[in-house]
């Protein structure tokens, strides 16, 4: 048997017949018993969650189902940024071992480091090729957990997103099999599946890369022994008039993912917010811890750059040895039509590049994906898992 998949996007108020039909159609498109399913549904459907899960599992014959709430839904070449509905993907992986892991808030709080996660999951680094990760946005310590997770499973990238559409810490947003769960994180370990990732942060480097020569916590005082604020001002002033107009409020800090890359380019940086700048002290505050010796280059993000970034990364994967038969798409709720000024942007670019392969996803409250050899929590990003033949 070969890998295969089927997907359906259902929009509108909950109807039992529509959910059953979508699950049956996705099953038929999959062409056989699926190994697992991914389900993303709007908060409007949460009151009927028990019925939805029963229908999907029964009519889709799903032995393992993971999912989350999403304020907007994504399907094949289509994005529904508001309103009710569900997005479903069924996948058959005949030669893949799937291991679902439920992580609680308590586990994150009591973790003693990477070895703790190997013990808790019962998995060694060589038993995982990649992770699909869904998380509750109100769970504490997610960035610290992910940093430990990277070390525990160094060769297994994590790709996924944080649930959206919920408004309080006590609300359950994640789905595992037949119920909503209060888990902080759901992680699905894949062993034997070929997964490629796209992490489009929507930025391009501007100016020159500089070594951080003085920093404390998230404050950068000096770049190349010059005040960081001065470097920021010079970078902005060197932009063209058109770029200056686009850059107002859209400049970010890019930290090099590896210090061993000689020619840094788009995609080689972990992009973080510029939180403020002080011309008196020369300091620039960023949304990450900075350390002396790191390389930083300022970044420009706008709709033109973000479109080019996703298109370039998708075309790069299309030229390599990946023929996707399905995909999961985790797009920031800050993207979409308000940002790109056109509907269905991210889903459309992916469908145009890879064809109308079965796909499901949602608009997230934060995205997870690898930059270099480690996975990070992102914002304003499209993180995509391509399931390759």
Question: What would you say this structure looks like, in words?
Answer:
Helices cover 26% and strands 38% of the residues. With 389 residues, it is of the alpha+beta class. It folds into two domains: 4-201 and 306-388, no CATH class; 203-301, Elongation Factor Tu (Ef-tu), domain 3, CATH 2.40.30. The strands form four sheets. A six-stranded mixed beta sheet has the order 1-6-2-3-10-11. Strands 5-4-23-22-26-13 form a six-stranded mixed beta sheet, covered by helices on one side. α1 packs parallel to α2 (49-59) and α8 (303-319) runs parallel beside α10. The longest helix has 17 residues, at 303-319.
Rg of Cα set: 21 Å
Give the N-terminus to C-terminus distance in angstroms.
12 Å
Q: Helix/strand/pairing class, anyone?
A: alpha+beta
Give the number of DSSP strands.
26
Shape: globular
Helix fraction, binned, reads 25-40%
Strand content: 35-45%
Q: How many domain units? A: 2
Strand order of the largest sheet: 1-6-2-3-10-11
Oligomer: single chain
Q: Which residue ranges are poorly predicted, with pLDDT under 50 across at least 5 consecutive positions? A: none
Number of helices: 10
Main beta sheet: 6 strands, mixed
Mean pLDDT: 94
Tag the structure with descriptive keywords:
389 residues, alpha+beta, Elongation Factor Tu (Ef-tu), domain 3, 2 domains, six-stranded mixed sheet, 26 strands
SSE layout and pairings?
Layout: E1 4-11, H1 16-30, E2 36-41, H2 49-59, E3 65-69, E4 72-75, E5 78-80, E6 85-92, E7 97-103, H3 105-110, H4 114-121, E8 130-135, H5 142-152, E9 158-162, E10 174-176, E11 179-181, E12 185-191, E13 194-200, E14 203-205, E15 210-216, E16 219-223, E17 226-227, H6 228-237, H7 241-247, E18 251-256, E19 269-278, E20 283-286, E21 295-301, H8 303-319, E22 324-332, H9 336-340, H10 345-354, E23 359-364, E24 367-371, E25 374-378, E26 382-388
Parallel strand pairs: 2-3, 8-9, 22-23
Antiparallel strand pairs: 1-6, 2-6, 3-10, 4-5, 4-23, 7-12, 8-12, 9-24, 10-11, 13-26, 14-21, 15-16, 15-21, 16-17, 16-20, 18-19, 18-21, 19-20, 22-26, 24-25
């Amino acid at each position: 048997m070969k890998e295969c998949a089927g997907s359906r996007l259902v929009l509108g108020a909950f109807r039992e017949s529509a959910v059953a039909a979508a699950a049956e159609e996705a099953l038929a498109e999959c062409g056989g018993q699926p190994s697992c399913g991914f389900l993303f549904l709007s908060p409007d459907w949460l009151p009927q969650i028990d019925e939805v899960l029963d229908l999907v599992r029964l009519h889709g014959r799903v032995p393992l189902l993971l999912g989350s709430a999403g304020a907007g839904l994504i399907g094949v070449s289509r994005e529904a940024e508001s309103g009710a509905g569900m997005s479903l993907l069924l996948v058959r992986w005949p030669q893949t071992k799937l291991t679902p892991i439920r992580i609680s808030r308590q586990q994150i709080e009591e973790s003693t480091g990477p070895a703790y996660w190997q013990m808790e999951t019962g998995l060694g680094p060589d038993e995982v090729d990649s992770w699909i990760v869904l998380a509750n946005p109100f769970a504490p310590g997610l960035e610290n957990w992910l940093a430990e997770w990277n070390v525990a499973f160094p060769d297994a990238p994590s790709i996924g997103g944080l649930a959206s559409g919920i408004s309080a810490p006590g609300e359950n947003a994640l789905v595992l099999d037949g119920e909503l769960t209060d888990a902080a994180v759901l992680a699905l370990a894949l062993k034997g599946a070929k997964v490629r990732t796209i992490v489009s942060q929507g930025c391009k480097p501007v100016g020159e890369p500089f070594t951080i020569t003085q920093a404390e916590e998230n404050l950068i005082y000096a770049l190349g022994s010059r005040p960081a604020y001065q470097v920021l001002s010079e970078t902005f002033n060197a932009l063209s008039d058109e770029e200056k107009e686009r850059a107002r409020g859209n400049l970010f800090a890019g930290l090099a993912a590896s210090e061993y890359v000689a020619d840094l380019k788009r995609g080689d940086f972990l992009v973080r917010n510029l939180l403020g700048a002080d011309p008196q002290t020369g300091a620039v505050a960023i949304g990450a811890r900075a350390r002396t010796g790191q390389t930083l280059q300022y970044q420009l993000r706008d709709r033109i750059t973000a479109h080019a970034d996703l298109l370039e990364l998708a075309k790069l994967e299309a030229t390599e040895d990946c023929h996707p038969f399905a995909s999961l798409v985790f797009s920031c709720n800050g993207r979409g039509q308000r940002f790109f000024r056109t509907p269905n942007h991210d889903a459309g670019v992916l469908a145009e590049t890879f064809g109308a392969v079965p796909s499901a996803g949602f608009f997230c409250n934060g995205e997870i994906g690898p930059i270099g050899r480690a996975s990070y929590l992102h914002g304003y990003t499209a993180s995509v898992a391509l399931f390759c033949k």
